[in-house]
Amino acid sequence: MTSASFDYAPLLAPNLPPAAAKWSGFPKYNFIGGHNDAEHVPVDELVAAATNVLRREGATLATYGLNSGPLGYRPLREFLVGKLKSHAGITCSPDEILITSGSLQGIDLVNGILLAPGDTVLIEQETYGGALTRLTRQGVKTVGIPLDGEGMRMDALAAALDDLKRRGVRAKYIYTIPTVQNPTGSIMGAARRAEMLKLAQAHDVPIFEDECYSDLVWRGERPPALYAMAGGNGVIHIGSFSKSIAPALRVGYIVAGWDLLSRMLAIKQDAGSGALEQMVLAEFCKSHFATHVPALTKALRVKLDVLMEALSEQFGTSAEFSEPDGGIFLWIKLPDQVDTVKLGQAALAAGVSLNPGPEWSTDKQYSRCRLRLCFANPSPDTIRSGVATLAEVCRKEFGVPTRIANVERAKAR
Predict the structure, then answer these.
(1) Cα 257 to the chain's mean position, in Å?
(2) Phi and psi dihedrals of 238, rounded to 5?
(3) Distance between CA atoms of residues 55 and 61, nearest Å
(4) Against a cut of 0.85, is the pTM above it?
(5) In DSSP terms, which residues pair with 296 in a beta bridge?
(6) In terms of DSSP bridges, do strands 252-255 and 235-240 run parallel, antiparallel, or are they unpaired?
(7) Are 253 and 78 in contact (CB under 8 A)?
């Protein structure tokens, strides 16, 4: 009996997400997900790193954990100690870092030890779609906190915390992406970070700090991490190599005290995250990370400029956006009549993939006319052609941008 002849439908667990579509290759104009710049994957250096580390330590692949234990490959954790200190101001030891299979596993582990159905978390109104999906599947209540140009608004956070206190509800954590926020690309200033820590302490609520994109800052400078400012007290910190090196490597990390890491290890029953990835990254990073990231960031900044220019040329004033402080995404508002879920479906038929706003927001109505475009992977020419195609689809479906406005905009330039 083949699987095609057996009906599994009655046996499927309840509340599953919709079935995935079969993959048929990337669309011509791919603006979704967290794909990065293929030309800046350091292939030669990774090959050399793999050769060197495998010749030197390949025999340790015979043991789970590479003789480093369940927290992950120790040389990689040792590299992170230095990186986190210089980049984010975090002081920690290798034994306060857990290597994960991407930052998503980090989110799963934190949620796994802290959350139960019916719990409440505070989260940025526009935020990482993967985090939202996981909270929804766990039956967790989310309170979306509005953003401004500096990230989560502290007046709104204070009001939400006070409201929960009045109702006798203690939030399990405040989830924030303070350094290169996803999807808006903003960076929270040091004063606001201090205010968030003060509010969290006053309400006895921990902060879950996601710094997946924090290496990709245009100016190269950023405020200290919340974890650093708090001395690790009441803050859990996660990060990733996906955006700074390559997303397919699937290596992330959690920074926390042993009281929490020991609980996470108890549910991380995967025999350890990928060993080869950890070994190669550690070997690569000790020699090349400091020079690789600025070169990647410079290339990404060029692509962002191309995207913003193409949007201005093709959409005119119909596309509103603020220049992000770093990262690989641009968050865009279209006129109110545009439904970006429907736009996404029509655009995909024309070869353009995009992330509709409602996938990245707790307020589906607010985000209905918004979308996220990833500019890191396509070439500059592809970005220009893709935006032109998207504008044509948007005209056909929703009447915006108008051709007259587009012509006038071009003449004005």
Answers:
(1) 23
(2) -125, 155
(3) 11
(4) yes
(5) none
(6) antiparallel
(7) no
pLDDT in tens, 353-398: 999 999 999 999 999 999 999 999 999 999 999 999 999 999 999 9
| Rounded Cα–Cα distance for residues 367 and 180 (Å) | 19
CB 354, CB 390: distance < 8 Å: yes
Q: For the chain, where do the domains classified as CATH 3.90.1150.10 start and end?
A: 27-41+291-412
DSSP per-residue letters across 91-139? ---GGGEEEESHHHHHHHHHHHHH--TT-EEEEESB--HHHHHHHHHTT
DSSP code for 321? -
**What is the maximal distance between C-alpha atoms in the chain?**
67
pLDDT tens, 257-280? 999 999 999 999 888 899 999 999
Q: What is the 3-state secondary structure (H, E, C) of 268-306?
A: CCCCCCCHHHHHHHHHHHHHHHHHHHHHHHHHHHHHHHH
CATH among 1.10.10.10, 3.40.50.720, 3.40.50.300, 3.90.1150.10 for 27-41+291-412: 3.90.1150.10
Contact 352, 29 (CB under 8 A): yes
Contact present, 231 and 258 (Cβ < 8 Å): no
Q: What angle do CA 108, 149, 245 make, to 5 degrees?
A: 45
